[in-house]
Sequence to fold (310 residues):
Amino acid sequence: MALAERIEPQSKEPLRLWLRLLTCATAIEKKARAMLAERFGTTLPRFDVLAALDRARDGLTMGELSAQLLVSNGNVTAIVARLVQDGLVTQAQDRDDRRILRVKLTPKGRRDFRLYAAEHERWIEQLLSNLNEREIQDLLAGLARVKTSIERSGL
Amino acid sequence: MALAERIEPQSKEPLRLWLRLLTCATAIEKKARAMLAERFGTTLPRFDVLAALDRARDGLTMGELSAQLLVSNGNVTAIVARLVQDGLVTQAQDRDDRRILRVKLTPKGRRDFRLYAAEHERWIEQLLSNLNEREIQDLLAGLARVKTSIERSGL
Fold:
């Protein structure tokens, strides 16, 4: 936190906003990493992969999976290989096109993920518990404007 | 973007806020990574290290440097070693305690960083250019509340 506060005064407003956004995201991410390690002995990149697969009924190709991850994450192949070893994930041929491999959760993978996800949601609620409903709604609306601005920026 | 939109409807508000925050931060980070690579052949972790050193007049110990980084980042030692090789950074003994090594920018390192930073600021301005001053101020205030909430959460 100290860092962003120290540099913000000299910076222009959009840069201040970006730094504060990054500071908040990094702070929550750090807590989530620590809690996942401490409570479940797992990692945020693994959690992120399981979350993407939990939302995909028919599994995902490796390309689709990479595209859906929220946490930037160098080595999806290694993470999936490890999840296969641990029995949380399988790789199987696509029904229609046998050249395509689809990654899916196993029943154990789904059970474990649901357990992590429920706890994760509780941590997030606790981390944000000083904000009232109105403040959360305002932030959701403001961040939706940020998303739109990025998409329209042409960069 | 599609991902967060798809999962958000079922999620409770704090979790939606966290996912949207992460989506925005990831989107800007991805653009910054691409632009740094394309325009300067450099990386966001390198930029982040140079930024921390640019703010520290007397340099930083490796521990201080790690603590100041905004981008989560496994291998600070390797990044610094590479920056030393490239002549952007030096490691020298602390004046008062010769057992301590301090990492500092070289004049070339400072020049290069300032060039990257000016461009980086322009990209951020462009990415956020659809937001007016009021929207930016509201987000800065809301995110300050998020920071406070995280700090007070006890997690």
Summary: Chain B has a mean pLDDT of 90. Chain B touches chain A through 64 residues (CB under 8 Å). The CA atoms of residues 35 and 41 of chain B lie 9 Å apart. The first strand of chain B starts at residue 89 and ends at 93.
